[in-house]
Structures are given as structure tokens and as C-alpha cells.
Amino acid sequence: MSHILPIIVILLAIYSWYRAQKKSAPSGGGTSVRNRDLAKAAAQLGFLPGEQLDTDRAYAPDARIAAVREAVRAGDWKAGAQFLAEAGRDWQERDRRSSVLADEAVKDDSWLLAWRTERPEDPDMALVFAESMIYLAWEVRGSATAKHTTQEQFAGFRRILDQAREACAQAQALAGDDPCPFIVEIPLAKGLGYPHERFEEIWAEIVQRDPHHLAAHTSALQYWCAKWRGSHELAEGFARSAAEKGTPGQLLTLLPLEAYFEYEIQHSDLEQDEFYKRPEIVAAVDAALVDVAAAAAADPEDWRIPQVRHLLASLLFWQDRYEAAAEQFRLVDGYINAVPWSYRGGRDAMIKAYVQQRDFSAAQVVKTQGGI
Questions:
Q1: Are 254 and 242 in contact (CB under 8 A)?
Q2: What span, in angstroms and rounded, lies between the C-alpha atoms of 81 and 112?
């Protein structure tokens, strides 16, 4: 027995060293031989250098979006109206397009006010107006945690959200079977602290109109998280239920992955290298791989897919499934404004976190091929 103990100690030391390497490298820079090898492996697999990564987008630019942004900035509200109308009854696309327009209105709403004056009962205008009010409220609040947000910021935040609630009600009155005016109220529920019963009423309106709307589910998950109005148990329960109701290609398997990620970042004492290897999380990752493959087969240009791939890549990295991780990184490389990297803060921190996991995964793949 005594001769076994030193072996166990050595193995534990090796394991601890390996975990430390995963957490600390690669940085995307540095001068050590190891970092050079990692960068070389990433280049060998065709990955971009860190300085070429786009931290503003999660996927390649859409020419239609760029054109409509330019048009409304020039005051052409009709171009914005047409852009949204062309989404038709594709509620996921309609939600995306209204978000683009709302984002522009926060910067300059003169074109939206002209649209409102010309068509005061237009459901499209009402949707964009309500969403822009909510975006403006969050702009006033800022993205910092509560303890780093001033009382003046909170006061302005709540004042604008109160106005936004009225705008949401007006948009919902014009909604018909469109779920989007109800979806945009979810951030209101978070910010104003809607009780669970009230939130369930909003959610019922959404799922009645579109039971598998991905953005609605990911937004609702945030409400159920402990950092907002729920708990990890409620968030995980909501996520699992959503995933079980979806079919491959609808991408609702993203929900459990996000719930696990939210839990992990709220618990600094967790070891990612252990937590993400839990059997239920491995199973959730496997389900998401099937889901995203089905979505990509149905529509390779589906703009929702990258957000799933980014989180999959990170979780596969923590599960030591490097070949699968590298494949996901390959499919999203270049545009990294997505979870989990977007939680890191500024551009440099996002790039460092992304490159760290991507290049380490690449190095393990190349090593198995005899390249390092």
C-alpha cells in the first residue's frame, strides 16, 4: 500500500498542472515556447489571429441590416418600415429586425418619431417604439452590476421602464397573433421585478403565438435566473422543460447550456474542469450537438446557430472533447460577440478568453495528428 501513495500523489500533481494549463493558456500572445506552439496549432487549423476577431458581432455582417441602418440614419423611416414588414410572419426574423431598428432609434429617434407621426396606429411602429424605450432604459442603467450602478442611474432606468410599459401595452393591443410585443416586455419584467404570476401571464401570450421562439426562451431564462427574479432551480427547470418540448433544429437545447453556464459564473468556487463534466451536462451538450446539426442541415445560414456553437465550443473545451470543440470554433471563428465571451467585458478580455480555449483545443487536435 505504501508504494501506491507516491504514485497517487504524482498523478494528482499532474492532473492539477493540466487543469492549470487549461485555465491559463493560451493567452493569444506572450513569448513562451508553449504559447508559440499554441498559436502555431491554431494557425495550422486555419483560425484567425486574435487581433482580427470581431467583437461587435456574433456572425458575419448582413448586408440588408447594414443598408437599413444607413437608411434610417439618413431619416428614411419608410426603409425601416419596409425592412420590418418584409419579415412577414417569421416571428424570429421579425424579432431580430425590430431589435435592429430599436437599437438605431436609441442613437437617434427622429426617423422613428416621423414614422409614429405618419402612422400612429401602425403595429410595426408600435413594436419598434416600445422596444427602443426598453433599450434606452438599459442604456441609462448601464451594464454594471447593481453595486456598481448609481442611484441616479437606477432612478432613470425605472422612470423610462415605466414609460416603456405603457408603450408595450399599446403595441400588444395592436399585436394580433404577433408574439414580439410580448417578448419585448420580458426585460421589463426583469427590470421592474414582475412577480412570477404576472410573468407567467406574459409567457402564456408568447407561447400561444409561438411556442418555440428561441430568443423569447433565452430572454425568459434570464428572468428565471437567480441574478434577476428566480433561482438556479427555477432557471434549470424552465430550461429543461423548453429543451424537452423542442425538436431537433429548433435549437431549444441551448437553454440548459445557458442555465448551467449562469450557475457556474455565479459560483466562483466551482471548478469548470469538474463542473462541466457532470453527466447531465455532457448529455445536454450531446443533445445540443444533434440540435445544431439539424438546424444547419435545414438552413446553413440560420443566424441563430452561431450563439449555440459558441457556447458548445466552450463546454466541449471544458469536457476535454477537443476535436469537437475545434470544429465548433472553426464554424464561428471571426465573430465572437456571443456567450460566453461577451460576459468577459471589453474587447481585449473577450478575445483573450476566446483565444485561450480555441487555441488550446487546436493544440490538442494537432498533437493527436503528430503536429506538435
A1: no
A2: 9
Of the candidates 360, 299, 307, the one whose C-alpha atom is nearest the C-alpha of residue 47 is 360
Residue located via cell numbers 422543460? 241
**What are the helix (H) ranges across the chain?**
4-24, 33-44, 63-73, 77-85, 91-107, 110-118, 123-141, 151-173, 180-183, 186-192, 196-209, 214-224, 232-245, 254-266, 272-275, 279-298, 305-318, 322-332, 347-368
Measured CA to CA, the distance from residue 186 to residue 247 in angstroms comes to: 24
State the average pLDDT over residues 220-231. 96
* Closest to 188 measured CA to CA, from 208, 204, 167: 167
DSSP H helical ranges for 212-278:
214-224, 232-245, 254-266, 272-275
Cis peptide before 26 (omega within 30 of 0): yes
Contact between residue 91 and residue 210 where contact means Cβ atoms under 8 Å apart: yes
pLDDT in tens, 140-188: 766 656 666 677 776 777 888 888 999 999 999 999 999 999 999 999 9
Judge whether 104 and 131 are in contact, CB under 8 Å: no
Task: Select from 133, 197, 201 the least CA-distant residue to 170.
Answer: 133
Q: pLDDT tens for residues 254-299?
A: 999 999 999 999 998 999 999 999 999 999 999 999 999 999 999 9
